[in-house]
Amino acid sequence: MQRREFITIAAAGSAVLIGGLFIPKFLRGKKPESRINPEFHPDVEIELTAHPSEVPILGNPPTRVWKYSAKLIRGPKNTIQELEGTYLGPVFRFKKGQKVRIIFYNNIPDKTIVHWHGLHVPQEADGHPRFVIRKGQKYVYEFEVKNRAGTYWFHPHPHGRTGPQVYMGMAGLLLVTDEEESSLKLPEGDNDIPIVIQDKTFDNRNQLVYLTGGMMERMTGFLGEQVLVNGQPDFTLQVSTSVYRLRVLNGSNSRIYKLAWSNGRPLTVIGTDGGLLERPVTKRYIMLGPAERVDLWVDFSDYSVGDELILKSLPFSGASTGGMGGMMGRRMGRRKRRRVPGNGEELNIMKVKIAGKTEAKRTILPRRLSNPGFHRPEDAINRNSPRTFRFAMERMRPTINGRTFQMTGVAGDEIVKLNTLEVWELINSSGGMGMMGGMMQMPHPVHIHGLQFQVLERTPSSGWETIKDGFIDNGWKDTVLLMPGMRVKVLLKFEDYTGLFLYHCHNLEHEDLGMMRNYLVKA
Ligand code: C2O
Ligand code: CU
Ligand code: CU
Question: CATH number of the domain that 333 lies in?
Answer without folding.
Answer: 2.60.40.420
